[in-house]
Amino acid sequence: MPYTVVSLSTGSTLTSSPVTLNWRGGKPTSISVTASSSFACDFTVQYTLDDIMLVGGSSVAAWAGISSATGQPATHFLSSTAFPDGVSYTFPGAVGAVRLGSSSLGGGTGGTLTMRVMQGETI
Fold first, then answer.
1. How confident is the model over 71-86, as pLDDT tens digits?
2. Bridge partners, 100 (sequence order)
3. CA–CA separation, 27 vs 121, rounded Å?
4. Domain ranges of the chain
5. Can you spell out the DSSP letters for 7-52?
6. Considering only the top CATH level, what class is 4-118?
7. What is the pTM of this model?
8. pLDDT of 76-120, one tens digit each?
9. What's the DSSP call for residue 76?
10. Which residues have a Cβ under 8 Å from the Cβ of 102 and sit 6 or more positions away?
11. Are 102 and 43 in contact (CB under 8 A)?
């Protein structure tokens, strides 16, 4: 799968468009989220095991957030955590799609969250 980049910036929607993945291939998927600066922001990385093309779209899919502890709610990261080095996560198995969500995007100073997604044998 090619390298895919999605972004959320101040004043944009609170959920990025989903990045559809090849879940049938079962290859690992790595994501990296970076912030353009340490602006007021909180974000989650969400994934679904559903094939969003088969279930009728991303609004029908069951989304979950990655967590820093097994069995716990989704971890909310701050832009200060993702700036400048970023936050990385690898899904060892197949997932249907990933997306970037934010409950608050900047107040006062603008900024951009960028999620890079790569799926394949060697990441």
1. 778 887 877 777 888 8
2. 45
3. 6
4. 4-118
5. EEETTS-SBPPPEE--TTTT--EEEEEEESS--SEEEEEEEESS-H
6. mainly beta
7. 0.81
8. 787 777 788 888 889 888 899 999 888 766 555 667 888 889 887
9. P
10. 8, 14, 15, 41, 42, 43, 44, 113
11. yes
